[in-house]
From TrEMBL:
The active site is at residue 190. The modification N6-(pyridoxal phosphate)lysine is found at residue 190. Belongs to the DegT/DnrJ/EryC1 family. This is Aminotransferase class I/II-fold pyridoxal phosphate-dependent enzyme. GO terms for molecular function: pyridoxal phosphate binding; transaminase activity. The keyword Transferase applies. It comes from Neotamlana sargassicola. PANTHER family: DTDP-4-AMINO-4,6-DIDEOXYGALACTOSE TRANSAMINASE, TRANSAMINASE. One of its GO terms (biological process) is polysaccharide biosynthetic process.
Amino acid sequence: MKPIKLSLAHNANNEVKYVEEAVLNNQLSNYGNNLNVFNKQLETYFSKPNRIALLNSGTSAIHLALIQLGIKANDEVICQSFTFSATANPIVYQKAIPIFIDSEPETWNMCPVQLETAIKDRMSLGIKPKAIIVVHSYGMPAKIDEILKISEKFSIPLIEDAAGALGSTYKGLKCGSFGEFGIISFNGNKIITSSSGGALICTAEDQKIKANFLATQSKANKPFYHHEEIGYNYSMSNIVAGIGRAQMEVLKERVLKRREVNVFYKEIFEGINGITLLTEPSEYYYSNHWLTCILINFEEAGFSNEDLKKELEKHNIETRFLWKPLHLQPIFSEFPYYGKSSSEQLFNIGLCLPSGSNLSIQDKVYIKSVIMNFISKK
Ligand SMILES: *Cc1c(COP(=O)(O)O)cnc(C)c1O
């Protein structure tokens, strides 16, 4: 058996064709047909004409969102704790202060109650947070109605980290399109990839124009090199966009495949004590199920997440622990945190299972037999 990975890039049909086209037409840098088409595909998908900037990563998209919201040194930015470090790193790039918020148990994303508590507490200390970053972790939409309401009530703009949530919807609307800014990642392990890359989803056309300006070293439109502000080298290349363009054509199929993988695990764990899957709380939520995640209650299951991880590792099946909350990370532990231990508990007992859209039937049969064997011995 070849090793089974957590989530692998999955080639579509037309990558070679589009990259070849770029090479033959000498469109080798940050302009060209692939960029135009990929941009159009995304703007159509999100129904946001002229509102999307293609960038070299999801992280740089978050950074440019913060810059456009005017986040500066010592400003406070509220951020979900249960996420990948890339969500919060750009806050620190701006020398601003992340204020971390715990998760709620249904979607595992930002708890609206703790969010409101945090805002009120910061305001009572005389500091109004300048932005909120919510994450749709593992593709599961956050409680976006409640969070938007709080964002509006206090007039604090929302940034949606939808890095892993392309294809997910809430009440039929696309994740990534709710906030003042949304971001997507096309990194290699996401639902589709451009090999590496990202997109910033804006609410106004001038934000897109500004993002593209900042992403190309803030070079002013003059006949000589003229810079009035600090810029970044964050733009996407036309070669990379050729891969993204081909992958965008199969997004729907990829989402359906990941959802099939989720059903596959649901059937395995049905009737097994002590195991719960991250599940859509109601019909309003449609997750792309980028990764299928489980929680293991040791008392009821008779084994821990670590036990199952080790067993699967022995059989060359890769799994991963859930996010270690950012407020517990050495790089962020000095910053304020609002919440209890929900996100910590998720980290302590959770596990991500192999969820790639290219898992074969043999892979699934093998994974199932290893898991069932392990459980029957417990
Ligand atoms: C992958 C990811 C990012 C970063 O995206 P890159 O394109 O790798 O920079 C940010 N946030 C979350 C939640 C992610 O999963």
